[in-house]
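step: validate -> pass
step: tokenize input -> pass
step: predict -> running
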Amino acid sequence: MTGWIGTMLLRPGLMVLTGEVGTTALHAHHTVQIMQSESAFRIGDAHGSTASCRAAVIPPNTSHRVVEGTASATLIHLAPEAAVATALCRDPADAVDVWVRHGAMFSCGPIGMTALVTGAGEPGRSAWHPAVRRSLADLPGLLADGPVRFGELAHRAGLSESRLAHLFSAEVGLPFRAYVRWLRMQHAIRLFAAGRTLTEAAHGAGFADSAHLNRVCHSMFGAAPSHFGQLRLVDELDGP
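step: predict -> pass
step: emit ->
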């Protein structure tokens, strides 16, 4: 298994990695994943089936692995509340050259990466309950202060914990704890790529220790946090 060598763009609800892609172990994450390369790579599912493709859309919570990597690719992770992520999950069969195996994965032709990233920055929140919008806005600040207490979030939003939990899952598409885990993982990767030690990144993102961070990273990305150590943080994507 090789690590990523390239660049990484991090924004709320969005992670974009560009560079060399190595193999990964079987894993699943709560995000929608889009991967594109000019040369073919091979992905596999939990049933042992594999497919060679140059672009793939992986729905949330879908076990998959990279069987054969590629020298240069772009990989996007979209939080489930992003409007474009919602559209991809709703009807992934709109992609061309669809490959479906065990209802698990979808491979497709070239994807407009710039359009996807632009759309990812515009979550479809206008029709959401104000308490959900308030909670999503408050979470990054709470995360930086330490453990996130759902009761405090509900109090800020003016709702009971049970009501906010129901609304959050229904509208964001992800339970609260799973969403917070994604935010913590994203922050830990940012800290590690910026030069912090694994222990510092773990504590800075709210994980119990580096072993805890390592377990979550393996389950979510199929690789150890050290695989992100050679990525260079950027503010904007290169190219059009």
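step: describe -> The CA atoms of residues 2 and 176 lie 32 Å apart.
step: cleanup -> pass
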